[in-house]
Amino acid sequence: MTAPTDLRAAALPQAGRRPARRPQPRLSKAVGYLFTGPYVLFALAFGIGPAVYAVLLSFSAPDGDFAGVSNYARVLDDFRFIPAVVHVGLYLALWLVSLLVFVVLLTLMVHAISVRWLSGALRLAYYLPGALAGASSVLLWLFMLNPSASPAAWLLRLMGFESFASTIAPDGLPIIFTLIAFWSGAGGWIVVMYGALNNIPHEVMEAARIDGCGPVQMALKIQLPLLRKWIAYMAVLSLAGGTQIFVEPTMLSQASNGQVPNDYSINQLAYLYAFNIRDFNASAAIAVMLLVVALALSAIFVWRGGLFETEDV
Question: What is the domain-level CATH number for residue 289?
Fold first, then answer.
């Protein structure tokens, strides 16, 4: 008769050996290609292709000859480049930290609400501002930040802002852009995270409760580790969007009659090079530098978040 310990050992996979994968049916492979094929085509046409073209332009002179790194040197010598990098860096630091902390915290709080209609109402309330995306949300915030027109004028005056010009002073712009981005983008991520929390097996949560886990321990020991890939996914996409900030400073620049400079962000500077100076090669150099930094930071998030880790079944 086989001992119980022998049975458990036989049931477990041997160390260093992965369990055999189940052969995929031919139909499921075809469906996979059908879903991923269009994405690959669009990624080549509108992602990888333009990126390769930008790299070629960045090393070329206007007449098409090889220019070495002269376009990069010209951009780095521009007195507007470093301030633009600092502006975007400050905005990214505030935006990503607030997004990662508050989205996860609010999601855990909403998920813990046992009253079904209240949980649904809160998710809808969080999600609705996302309907006003891009320029429309900035336009709304132009009124909100103006003490002479804002419904929150009393709050602005309490904080010492007596005019629109004082509200959008350059030193406070990273905070304003963070508020706009969080207001319009966080709600969608809360809904996504809420769905991810719902995918945690009920047996796992129940076992944790039986073992004596409270809400805080449950969040720290069970929910957050299982949300790690989703948090990394949110960070990567938000980082990509944050490095390309353009609409918000452009509209504030127009609304403030130039108080906010039109070269506030890196993307605005690239736009000025391309369409005001007609220097597409220098503009491409800025785009390539932005791409390299974004890819490097995204790789860190992917690596630390285990975004592409798979589980053998």
Answer: 1.10.3720.10
